[in-house]
Design brief:
Elements (H helix, E strand, L loop, with lengths): L2 H7 L2 H12 L5 H14 L5 E5 L5 H4 L5 E6 L2 H10 L5 E4 L13 E5 L11 H14 E11 L2 H5 L6 E5 L2 E6 L2 E7 L6 E8 L1 H8 L3 E8 L10 E8 L10 E3 L15 H11 L4 H11 L1
Parallel strand pairs: 1-2, 1-4, 2-3, 4-5, 10-12
Antiparallel strand pairs: 5-11, 6-7, 8-9, 10-11
């Protein structure tokens, strides 16, 4: 895990503004509200909920009275979480890649909200995080993971699996990508974050649950709709020969690429194509081809 990056970015000043900058921002609020609605459906009277990478504990704080706990690497974020949920079972500082034996089969709901898994070094480490979440979930329990992948980041779907990779026979998976973000207003930089494919999360969870559902939240203003994976009815033992039934949201309508571009961008493109010599070169290249 990029532990140094996490501690450098998520300091006390960053923690103080985190909810307003990300969870409660008008453009992102629809995602936050959709997450809360889904969590509410999973939290019955006997619920025991563990949120790993809990950050400021905003989601935990919205359910007072529920037996809940948080786990995070940043002490500054945990201090905020503790203050927001004084009735929580506990908040613990630590690395969610590590096994915690006393949590085995102890939680009816285990979540990883807002892509905390992105700070793992590799997809293999993300797989370990998911394996821990499964281990910590009790029979009949559930796992909920909102996903940040290439489709949300850049509206670019990528083929996950094929049974042939060109001239090389055999199965081929594109399990994820990496991305970096330099925040213009804070100067903080998130280096080479991991974004596994949503299909990879489904594949990891399916043998351990009776049902896996991919949900799509409403699209925020100016953004792409976020997706999440909800795995329910944890099995007593995995069944790789009979994985969970998986449901996917209905496909979104196909929008012509030009229709998604701002008017100023379209005008710049038209002007560039009308510049002297462009049309002549294009016609000449077309005849040559």
């Amino acid at each position: 895990m990029k532990s140094t990056d996490v501690l450098e970015v998520y300091d006390a000043e960053y923690a103080a503004d985190y909810n307003d900058r990300f969870l409660l921002l008008p453009g992102a609020r629809s995602n936050t509200d959709a997450d809360l609605a889904l969590l509410r459906q999973q939290l019955g009277p006997s619920a025991r909920w563990l949120d790993i990478g809990c950050g400021t504990g905003y989601f935990l704080s919205q359910f007072p009275g529920v037996a809940r706990a948080g786990y995070d690497l940043s002490a500054a974020m945990l201090a905020r979480a503790q203050a927001a949920s004084p009735d929580a079972l506990f908040f613990r500082q630590g690395d969610f890649r590590n096994e915690v034996p006393e949590w085995r089969a102890q939680w009816s709901l285990v979540t990883c909200m807002w892509s905390a898994y992105s700070y793992c070094e590799t997809v293999k480490e993300v797989e370990q995080v998911v394996a821990n979440m499964i281990t910590w979930t009790r029979p009949e329990g559930a796992i909920f993971i909102p996903i940040l992948d290439l489709e949300e980041l850049r509206a670019t779907p990528v083929l996950y699996h094929t049974d042939s990779a060109g001239m090389y026979p055999g199965d081929f998976w594109i399990t994820g990508c990496t991305w970096s973000w330099n925040e213009g207003d804070t100067g903080k930089t998130h280096h080479h974050l991991i974004a596994p494919q949503i299909e990879h999360f489904v594949r990891l969870l399916a043998p351990y649950f009776d049902k896996v559902e991919v949900v799509r939240h409403p699209a925020p203003a100016g953004g792409n709709p976020r997706r999440a994976v909800l795995a329910t009815r944890r099995r007593a033992a995995p069944d790789f020969a009979r994985p969970a039934a998986v449901t996917w949201p209905a496909p979104r309508p196909v929008v012509p690429p030009a229709a998604t571009l701002p008017l100023a961008t379209l005008l710049r493109e038209v002007a560039a194509r009308l510049r002297p010599g462009y049309i002549w070169r294009a016609l000449r290249n077309r005849r040559a081809g």
